């Protein structure tokens, strides 16, 4: 799957949610995106911390 997260809406929303959750000491472990026959784990891609 060709995945360009910096230009993607899902990536920017994930970072916003991650930052908000950090304010209340909640850690976002992963965001999994499913589209058609493709699945992308942002944690596996190194885009958010595990």
Task: Describe this structure as you would to a colleague.
The protein has 50 residues and is α+β, with helices and mostly antiparallel strands. The chain has one domain (5-41). It has one helix and two strands; from the N terminus they run H-E-E. It has one helix at 9-23; strands at residues 32-35, 38-41. It has a two-stranded antiparallel ribbon with strand order 1-2. The longest helix has 15 residues, at 9-23. The protein is elongated and about 35 Å long. The two termini are 22 Å apart. The model has no long low-confidence stretch (mean pLDDT 82).
**Rg over alpha carbons:** 11 Å
Number of helices: 1
Count of extended strands: 2
Fraction of residues in β-strands: 15-25%
| Main sheet strand line-up | 1-2
Helix content: 25-40%
**Helix-strand sequence:** HEE
Shape call: elongated
* Unreliable stretches: none
Overall structural domain count:
1
Characterize the main sheet: 2 strands, antiparallel
Q: Which whole number gives the mean pLDDT?
A: 82
Separation, N- and C-terminal Cα atoms: 22 Å
- Helical/strand content category: alpha+beta
